[in-house]
Amino acid sequence: MSQKTMSKEEYLNKAKDLNKDAGAPKVLEDTDFFTVAKERRSVRQYDPTVKISEEEIRELLEVATQAPSSSNLQPWRFLVIQDQAAKDELLPIANNQQQVVEASAVIAVLGDREGYKNAERIFGELVEMGRMTEELKNTYVNSITQGYGSFPAERLSKIAMIDGGLVSMQLMLAAKAKGYDTVPMGGFDQEKFVEAFRVPENFEPVMLIALGKGAKAGFEKSRLPLDEVLQWNKY
Ligand SMILES: Cc1cc2nc3c(=O)[nH]c(=O)nc-3n(C[C@H](O)[C@H](O)[C@H](O)COP(=O)(O)O)c2cc1C
Question: Domains along the chain?
């Protein structure tokens, strides 16, 4: 086997070459969950003339935020990067991945390590809705404040990453069901991103998601056979 390797930028942009002859991504007539989940692909070429409205992005995020989260603390935060100048600034930070400038928006999914500080508000709402007593709410809030408040930063970060991953997946599926495409991106300089986009100190990037109208279908990927990744009961 050849020993050749690629730079990170080449590696991240290579999938487009493999996909030169692809047509536009399928627009699904059937948006049944199983079809959407099977048909979603990472799409890296977009129609730059299509702008997704703020209203539609909000609709996608509303659905995405129905995702589960640790203690329902919803530590996800979203920075929607839509202005051309902001996308141009992001391009070199994201290894010149063209989808950053061609997609209608790039949504930075962030995790708030201090998300647990919203416990009072989140559980208080359940009291207002008549779904929880004030006393139980206080017990929950005290436990969360003490528990999460004593976790080391790495643990809070891990929670934010897990919850951020769940909301990201739900966002990508919602987009596909609505006729749009996405690609999740971890290939960017986190430090530069945080600095350039003035991300608050307690937030950390989970991933960037390009969202737009795909111009070329995603490269068809293989998957490991299920039996190689599946074990029942115990290892
Ligand atoms: C956390 C994460 C980071 C990723 N980062 C990038 C990236 O920076 N650039 C890119 O083109 N694709 C990126 N991908 C997309 C993967 O390459 C893609 O999901 C995988 O090859 C499977 O293809 P599919 O999404 O079309 O099923 C990333 C995916 C995940 C989950």
Answer: 45-114+159-215 (3.40.109.10)
Tell me the per-residue pLDDT of 52-108, one tens digit each, with 9 for 90 and over.
999 999 999 999 999 999 999 999 999 999 999 999 999 999 999 999 999 999 999
Q: Which atom of ligand 1 is nearest to the CA of 220?
A: 26
Is residue 141 within 8 Å of residue 119, measured between CB atoms? yes
Atom of ligand 1 nearest to the CA of 99: 11
User: Residue 58 to residues 39, 64, 80, 92, 173: CA-CA distances in angstroms?
Assistant: 23, 10, 10, 27, 15
Q: Which residue has the tokens 């603390």?
A: 73
- The answer to whether residues 163 and 78 touch, using CB atoms and an 8 Å cutoff, is no
CA dist 69 and 116 (Å) reads 11
Q: Residues with Cβ within 6 A of ligand 1?
A: 12, 15, 41-42, 44, 97, 183-187, 207, 218, 221
CA of 127 to the centre of ligand 1 (A): 41
pTM of the model: 0.96
Classify residue 118 by its DSSP letter.
G
Give residue for tokens 């063209």: 98
Residues 29-43: pLDDT tens digits?
A: 899 999 999 999 999
How much distance in Å is there from the Cα of 232 to the middle of ligand 1?
28
- For ligand 1, what atom is nearest to the CA of residue 221? 23
